[in-house]
Amino acid sequence: MEEVPDPRLGLTLSSDLIQDPILCSSPFLRRVKEDSNFIENRPKIDLTRLFILKYRRIEQLWSETLFITSNNLSEQLMNSNNWWGERK
Questions:
Q1: Relative to the CA of 12, which of 6, 45, 74, 87 has its CA 20 to 30 Å away?
Q2: pLDDT of residue 49
Q3: Low-confidence ranges of the chain (pLDDT < 70)
Q4: With contact defined as beta carbons under 8 Å apart, do 48 and 41 qualify?
Q5: Domain ranges of the chain
Q6: What is the pTM of this model?
Q7: What does the DSSP assignment read for the chain?
Q8: Which residues pair with 5 in a beta bridge?
Q9: pLDDT of residue 11
Q10: 80, 88 contact by CB (below 8 A)
């Protein structure tokens, strides 16, 4: 017997009750059954993998930022006579 959630009450309704013609006349119960099937059949999301992908993207952005910063610093040092930034 399939159970369908009733979001109003936080309870579940058995599929036998939903098959009852009188109860099926309620648009709310029909909607609950459709929503339940949609939620049950939607693709599952692997949250661990999603976190790793986001973390790797942030790590990549951070390393790109450090690379750009280090390149700018080395250019400044090459264009100067000393550490104080005076021009050659």
A1: 45
A2: 62
A3: 1-88
A4: no
A5: 3-41, 45-88
A6: 0.19
A7: --EEEETTTTEEEEHHHHHSHHHHT-HHHHHHHHHHHHHHHSPP--HHHHHHHHHHHHHHHHHHHHHHHHHHHHHHHHTBSSTT--B-
A8: 12
A9: 46
A10: yes
